[in-house]
Design a protein that fits this description.
Strand content: under 5%
Distance between the termini: 119 Å
Number of helices: 28
Structural class: mainly alpha
Shape: elongated
Largest sheet: none
Number of strands: 0
Order of helices and strands: HHHHHHHHHHHHHHHHHHHHHHHHHHHH
């Protein structure tokens, strides 16, 4: 094996191809005598390939002789770069093949040089020649070639070449820089990369006139959907313009409502809602038009009432406004408001009860309970009194609850065990009596009463 290595080293230092062949044959004979398999002869194959490259470079057609030591020091990529700098593209391509390397870089360099040297050749003819040559290397990038064409003011050629670029992430930014934003948007959309789509959209938003911008999006539903999603979070005025340009007045009105409600000043808020109301009417959207009109009426009323109550009301709901009116003693105004806004009777009672209990106006709570048969029952009255810390008031309403089990539960919650026992007797519940007895083991009077009721029920 030392002899084989010596032959290979000697071949590397020889300049004559005949001497190299003789030494390589000797090394091959030695390998055969040693019984080396093909894959074990990597050094032999590398040396043979390197010598083939060096001999080709040393030929009179190329005129770039190198020693094996120089070739090893320069490296294969450095050597190829020197060949490309001298426009020896054919030899560079062959050497890449001999050395097992991809020829993409060689083809791209050739194409760039071809573009620079072919100023008199038409874009279509030159583009076809470059594409035909580069298509022999699948996956090769056209971006550098297209960029070279663009720098030479051959925009049509650059655009034609970029049509064949396989990598959208490289293709789209160059198209944008070339002013081909609409084509860039189409390519970005086709790639499925939302980041690229947003890149083009934001560029168009910054540089294009609104009419041009919306025209570019008209037949691109995916790009439009992404822009709408962006605008909902970042740019409401633009979203409103999009809906207006696409003849969607109802959607535009929705944005106007959001903008109006964002104003702290009630006058500006009402003015914005008036604009939205007109848009809803134009769109024949009766539901949203009615809701917007109600909101305007409510804001006007709240602005008027704030002065009377000396409390903030603007922006609150109808129910919150009613509660403030009832709590402030403006019952007639509250009743009119409830009627105007068609608030259900049950909800009005709930609001009145909540407002009176919050003000601890137990006389008003009692008057409400006596007004007519409660549409909400009497459990809410008892709960409101308990939450307000008025157990004695709560007992009045517990007794009026129709459901016996609920009466027992609430009396026990109020620790009124005697009343709870009476309620259990009324519904003939021995089980209820037993539960009450266990809850007040030290109340002798209640224990005796429970035993009396239990004896009556067991007869």
């Amino acid at each position: 094996s030392d002899a084989v290595a010596a032959c290979l080293q000697a071949a590397a230092h020889e300049r004559l191809p005949s001497s190299q062949r003789a030494l390589l044959r000797a090394a091959a004979f030695g390998r055969a005598m040693l019984g080396e398999r093909e894959e074990e002869g990597g050094g032999f194959l590398r040396m043979a390939r390197a010598l083939r490259c060096l001999n080709a470079m040393s030929s009179w057609e190329i005129g770039m002789p190198m020693t094996h030591a120089q070739f090893r020091e320069c490296g294969t990529r450095g050597t190829l770069a020197r060949l490309l700098a001298r426009h020896e593209h054919l030899l560079a391509a062959r050497m890449s093949t001999w050395l097992g390397m991809r020829i993409d870089g060689v083809l791209v360099h050739w194409a760039c040089a071809k573009v620079k040297a072919s100023r008199g050749v038409g874009d279509e003819e030159l583009g076809e020649e470059i594409v035909r040559k580069l298509s022999t290397a699948p996956g090769v990038s056209y971006v550098e070639v297209a960029s070279t064409a663009y720098r030479l003011n051959r925009v049509a050629l650059a655009t034609r070449l970029l049509e064949h670029e396989p990598h959208a992430a490289d293709q789209v930014p160059l198209l944008i820089s070339m002013g081909q934003a609409e084509l860039a948007l189409r390519k970005a959309t086709a790639s499925g990369d939302t980041d690229l789509v947003y890149l083009v959209l934001l560029h168009l938003k910054r540089t294009a006139q609104p009419a041009t911008f919306f025209a570019a999006l008209r037949d691109k539903p995916i790009a439009m959907a992404l822009l709408v999603a962006y605008c909902k979070a970042q740019d409401l005025p633009l979203l409103k313009d999009i809906y207006y340009a696409s003849n969607q007045p109802a959607e535009s009105a929705h944005i106007a409502v959001r903008e109006a409600l964002a104003h702290d000043d009630v006058t500006q808020r009402i003015a914005g809602l008036q604009l939205a109301l007109e848009a809803y009417r134009d769109a024949k959207d009766a539901f949203h038009a009615a809701a917007t009109e109600d909101e305007i009426r409510l804001l006007l009323l709240q602005r008027e009432l704030e002065a009377e109550l000396n409390a903030p009301l603007v922006g609150r709901s109808v129910m919150a406004t009613l509660e403030a009116l009832y709590g402030g003693g403006l019952g007639k105004r509250a009743s009119k408001l409830a009627k105007d806004f068609k608030v259900a009777d049950r909800r009005v009672w709930q609001v009145r009860l909540r407002a009176y209990a919050a003000a601890r106006d137990w006389a008003a709570v009692a008057a409400l309970a006596k007004e007519k048969k409660s549409p909400i029952g009497y459990r809410p009255f008892a709960d409101a009194c308990i939450e307000a810390g008025a157990p004695h008031e709560a007992k009045k309403y517990v007794a009026r609850i129709a459901d016996g089990e609920e009466r027992i539960e609430l009396f026990c919650q109020l620790k009124a065990f005697g009343e709870a026992a009476t309620a259990a007797r009324e519904i003939k519940s021995l089980e209820g009596l037993d539960q009450i007895r266990q809850m007040c083991p030290h109340d002798r009077q209640t224990q005796a009463l429970i035993m009396q009721y239990a004896a009556e029920l067991q007869k």
